[in-house]
Amino acid sequence: MSDYIIEMLNITKEFPGIIANDNVTLQLRKGEIHALLGENGAGKSTLMSVLFGLYQPEKGEIRKNGEVVRIKDPNDANDLGIGMVHQHFKLVEVFSVLDNIILGVEPATKHLGFLQKAEARKKVLELSERYGLKVDPDAMVEDITVGMQQRTEILKMLYRDNEVLIFDEPTAVLTPQEIDDLMKIMKGLAAEGKSILFITHKLDEIKAVADRCTVLRKGRFVGTVDVATTSKEEMSEMMVGRKVQLVMDTAQQKLGESILSVQNLTVRSKRHGKPLVNNVSFNVRRGEIVCIAGIDGNGQSELVYALTGLMKAERGKVYLGDKDISHMSVRERNLCGMSHIPEDRHKHGLVLDYTLENNLVLKRYFDKQFSQKGFLKFNEIRSYAEKLIEQYDVRSGQGPVTVARSMSGGNQQKAIIAREIDLGNDLLIAVQPTRGLDVGAIEYIRKELLRQRDSGKAVLLVSLELDEVLEVPDRILVMYEGEIVGELDPRHTTAKELGLYMAGAQRKG
Ligand SMILES: Nc1ncnc2c1ncn2[C@@H]1O[C@H](COP(=O)(O)OP(=O)(O)O)[C@@H](O)[C@H]1O
Ligand SMILES: [Mg+2]
Fold first, then answer.
1. What domains can be seen in the chain, in order of their start residue?
2. Which of 104, 229, 273, 303, CA to CA, is 20 to 30 A from 430?
3. Ligand 1 center to 303 CA (angstroms)
């Protein structure tokens, strides 16, 4: 009998122009939590998709309990007891939680009889109890939180008696509390004998739950280590191939004049009476990074929408330098000197079906540099895109002509950052710029924010990540229920203190 429940041996998987997995080996022990670590684009999702039968590798073999198996599609994977929670969930929004869990398990489920359905419900409730996976079986998926959708996906695997569970970046979409819960759930699953493959970029999470960790870099296998005896620094060095500075050097800069000034801003949604942003005032000066901190949903998004022109404010003023921009359109604000790295890079950041080069000139194709008498100057656009790609290290399969959709999240984000920073504007608004990215990309982006500050720009950072809030900015403003409840100096603030403000347990004028 093999020590390993699953072995992926010398797997090679190619896509046009890129070798996503190059002779990769991964061995999963029964009952372990095995982390898969690597920068964006390292090939983690591809490797897991091979195991789940979504892709066929060009080379290599897969063994289960020592025996070679063929996994041609997800049904084969399921028959072998392999389940996967994808990076983007695959639930049917207009079905209930229960229906999603039992969907497709047996042909008869299309018209489940009353008794069969009652039995299915019983099994789901038992599983939910046993593993601490709280769900409301009758709620529609479109109405439930992301956390509950994820628990539904996990129940779906358990309902099928899967014993190998793949989690593809499960924490990227969760709140800190939900992440804690998920960590406990994963430990419980492993204690019950399930074998878990856990993709994450977060070294703290690996330290918290994983037994072993396999690292990929640019499609290649770097190594498998024991988590308990390997430091975070060692793992991140394996991942990026050089030493990473996990803590930023943030010397206070000389401050210049006020670039962004917000006065008594109030934003109200039409549906609810309560203001989402309530009488908020602050300013950001040349040479500083001000961070809006807070738990998700306390008005940060709406504040940014009002600042950038995506949403109308009910009251208050916004000045960019000495210009009143309160009533300007999004484009007018851009032209007045506002750059914006948006929260949702798919909705507001990129046109996914455009090429990388067209995305890079999205905000300035109408400049003289790029168009003349209504005609685009394609050569100019190409060489400008090549310059940015080089300068900001944006990696993709086919360079300027790569379709944005096919790029990894980190490289999509780098493209947005390149475009927004190269506009040369005085104000940069960066909303969760490192969300869901790997350590290498996070380090790069945080350093870029510091560089902007040091070159005399004003930076407004909105972040949910505690370490980012404490390490990057010069000043922290905490938002709670639409109001700024505290202004803190990150050099003299602990995570605990910050947490109290974020939870509304403390405030000062
Ligand atoms: N379906 C696909 N077609 C073409 N290229 C792809 C496809 N899926 C992934 N890639 C490329 O393969 C590489 C590895 O991607 P992926 O496995 O998603 O990385 P990770 O999950 O580690 O971020 C990336 O360069 C990505 O652009
Ligand atoms: Mg991935």
1. 4-240 (3.40.50.300), 256-337+427-433+454-509 (3.40.50.300), 346-424 (no CATH)
2. 273
3. 34
